[in-house]
Design brief:
Elements lengths: L3 E13 L5 E14 L4 E5 L6 H8 L7 E6 L2 E2 L5 H10 E4 L3 H4 L6 H11 L8 H11 L16 H13 L5 E5 L7 H18 L2 E5 L3 H7 L2 E6 L2 E7 H6 L4 H8 L22 H4 L15 H5 L5 E4 L2 E3 L7
Parallel strand pairs: 3-8, 3-9, 6-7, 7-8
Antiparallel strand pairs: 1-2, 1-4, 4-5, 9-10, 10-12, 11-12
Length: about 325
Amino acid sequence: MSLLEARGVTVRFSRKDSRGRRRAWDAVRGVDVALSRGERLGVVGESGSGKTTLAKGLLALEPLAAGTVRFDGESVEALRGERLKAFRRRAQMVFQDPMGSLNPRMTVGAAIAEVLSVHPLAPRHGRAQKVAEVLDVVGLDPGYARRYPHEFSGGQRQRIGIARALVLNPDLLVADEPVSALDVSLQAQILNLLKDLSLARSMACLLVAHDLAVVRYVCDRVMVMFQGCVVEEGPSEAVFGEPCHPYTRLLRDSVPDPDRRPQAGLACDAGTAPARSEAGAAGCAFAHRCPRAADVCRRECPVLGEVAPGRRAACHALPR
């Protein structure tokens, strides 16, 4: 049984336009997710594709307009009180901006110890020891517990965010763009840390990123999102080695590679996508940029289906 299983997840936002009329749009539309213990799943796509919104929806940090999420067999939407608190302990999130998620008035040690006071897994007199242990796990000097967030570099603050999540020994860690603001050397350290911790603790990891190389290095499987939908899913090496969906190919080919030769007839328009309200739900959201687009693509939204063993894609042009 999957540790995390989601079906038809839809997250809807709304706002008033200039005339005072309320407009609604689906930031995530009908997404399925399955994640086993110890597995690492990457979610990639351009900015605004719904990656972070999906992650928050899975952790009940954003309300669902439709769909279900089950964690270890229990419905997440139905959790209340102590049961919701227990879920929060087992499913932790590392946010993209560590400075924004750390209280500047609290020392690092106090910020991590606060988690242990909310989820009393250690007695009060033992919390300092727990803080020291988890700082050591993420490669920081336990003495740093007495310092404040502004005294650290970006990479160190990201490690502190990871330490705060890991101190509860979660079964699932959701990391939202954990290395996007770091230089390459620090990226490698953080990614190796996440990978090693997942292997050592049999901890499931959902990694949100826009950098394909990051996901390819860390994750077993990958989901590619566009306009709130999953357009391709499968093993990381297979998906990035030979993409099935034209959008996945566009993402891969956007990364400079002097050894790769472009394939004739498969170039995509990398221009700006229309707003969701303009793209509509009648057809494929990628049709306006796809070199394979046909009339059916503009009429009918493709269904995510199996195109090869262990691989799924949503494209009318692909054989099923």
